[in-house]
Structure formats: structure tokens, C-alpha cells
Design brief:
The protein is of the alpha/beta class and 282 residues long. Helix content is 41%, strand content 15%. It contains twelve helices and eight strands.
């Protein structure tokens, strides 16, 4: 029985092992008495460890990180700033946690007049995404190896005109882990300081979605275009991530919303790109 459970867990598991574990628990619901809940988590951690070891053995990754022209280096950021990096006046859209880069590449292909930055904290994953960007037909797309916690060290107010958060880690479990969620108040305050006019959020984790709704509301963010089952909503211009393709194909609903901070909490900035009229903080 354990061998079957292990194989099914591997089938459903993605980078966010907690979600893979959840889907396996649903699959094996009839055997809940036989299989304790922690068993799934132990197997998930085992597989994740295996996957990370495989990732570290990709010999081409260091060279890709060092030489791929789409990957932005620290020196370039601090010397030029992102607006000068792209050498145009087009708005910049940022995706935090780009994974294998499908969403960012396809968005860039469809919108050549937008500058996209795909951010990822895992070096090998970022290298793979940058490597595939060209064959996916991406236009103005750059990659940044960075953790969301240091956004304020790299971006200035007004740099980012739209933020995408797609299928981020839900950080389930203890309350103190909630601070790591990218829709937690501490991150929303950071986005406000960066004068980001709008945020687009997608997840397949309902508790995370509900948590995010509460976080946005607590900070007085305006919420619109909420969907509790995106692929049944009739939205025509949705671009799927690899993760989204996999789990929506298994019948799991995708939750989506768009949110915008109140003008009174945004830094005053005007580059002619924003349709709003932010109020300077007092």
C-alpha cells in the first residue's frame, strides 16, 4: 500500500509539496483510517529532497546563470535601474515566483509593449526559465534571481506598474508561518511603498485565497474580478502557468482576484503611465 501511495504522491506533487500532499490525501480519503495524515507529509518531504538534489546536479545551470543575457545581474540593477535596463519607457510588470517561466514568456509574447520581469529565488529553476524564454517567443522579458523580502532594496516607487503572484507557497500550518505568505500584511505594506497600482493573484489553495481576501480588506485594498472557479468563469485572456495547467486538468478550481491599494497609502509618483492620481502621503 505504501508503494502505491508513494507513486500517487509523486504524480501529484509539485514544487509546493503541501498542495501535492493535499491532493493525495483527497485521492486516498477512503483509506484515511489506515494512512495517518502525517504519512503523506513525510513522503512529500522525501520526494522534495530528491527533487532538490536532482536540481543541484544540473551542470549547465551555473553557466546559464552567468551568461544568459535575459538574466539581470546585481551590478546592472544598481548601475542603471530597471527603466534604463530595458532602454524604453514601457511599463514594467513583475511576476514573483515565476517557476519555469511559462506565464511570463507567454505574457511577453502577447504584449510586446510591456516590459516583464520574472523573479524567482531558486537558481536552477530561474536558469531553466531563462533558457526556455527564447524558444517560447518572449519579447521584453528579463529574469531576476531574488527573494521577495528584499524587493525594496532593488525597486524604486513607480518602477512596477503591475504585480503578478501566481500559485505562491500557501505556508499552511502554524500561525507564525502566515507571515511568509506573499499576501500577508507585511508584503502588502511593501507593495504600497513601491507604489504598485494593481496586483493580480491566482491560487488553487482555498484557505490561502480566503486569507488573502482578509489581508487585502484589512489594508483597505480595492478588490475586483474575483473568481472562485477561473476556468469556468469565461475569462478569455487568462494565461496558464505550468502548475495551473496540471491541477485544473485534474478538476481542481482555480481562484483569482485583482486588487489595488488605496490611493492614500501609495507613494506619490507620476511617470505618465498610471491612470490613477495617487495622493501624496502626509
Amino acid at each position: 500500500m505504501a508503494d502505491v501511495y508513494y507513486s500517487v504522491l509523486r504524480k501529484y506533487l509539485t514544487a509546493e509539496y503541501a498542495e501535492g500532499a493535499k491532493h493525495c490525501k483527497l485521492y486516498f480519503a477512503p483509506f484515511a483510517v489506515i494512512l495517518p495524515s502525517f504519512f503523506c507529509d513525510i513522503l512529500a518531504l522525501t520526494i522534495i529532497s530528491e527533487e532538490k538534489m536532482r536540481a543541484r546536479k544540473k551542470k549547465w545551470a551555473p553557466g546559464e546563470l552567468a551568461n544568459n543575457p535575459r538574466i539581470i545581474r546585481d551590478a546592472e540593477v544598481h548601475a542603471k535601474g530597471f527603466k534604463k535596463y530595458f532602454d524604453n519607457t514601457n511599463p514594467i510588470y513583475l511576476e514573483i515566483g515565476c517557476g519555469k517561466g511559462r506565464f511570463a514568456a507567454e505574457s511577453s509574447r502577447q504584449n510586446p509593449n510591456i516590459n516583464y520581469i520574472a523573479m524567482e529565488r531558486e537558481p536552477v529553476i530561474l536558469a531553466a526559465a531563462a533558457r526556455q524564454a527564447e524558444e517560447r517567443g518572449a519579447h521584453a522579458l528579463a529574469f531576476l534571481l531574488l527573494d521577495a523580502d528584499v524587493l525594496l532594496d532593488y525597486f524604486r516607487p513607480g518602477d512596477i506598474r503591475r504585480l503578478y503572484i501566481n500559485f505562491c507557497d500557501p505556508w499552511p500550518g502554524k500561525k507564525k508561518r502566515a507571515k511568509r505568505r506573499l499576501t500577508h500584511e507585511k508584503y502588502l505594506i511593501m507593495y504600497e511603498k513601491l507604489d504598485i497600482p494593481e496586483l493580480h493573484f491566482k491560487t488553487d489553495n482555498r484557505p490561502l485565497f480566503e486569507f488573502s481576501l482578509e489581508s487585502f480588506s484589512a489594508r483597505d485594498w480595492r478588490i475586483k474580478n474575483v473568481s472562485l472557479d477561473l476556468h469556468q468563469s469565461g475569462m478569455e485572456d487568462n494565461i496558464k502557468t505550468e502548475y495551473e495547467e496540471k491541477f485544473s486538468g485534474q478538476g481542481f478550481p482555480i481562484y483569482r482576484l485583482e486588487a489595488a491599494p488605496p490611493k492614500s497609502k501609495r507613494v506619490f509618483y507620476d511617470d505618465g503611465l498610471d491612470t490613477g492620481d495617487p495622493i501624496p502621503p502626509t
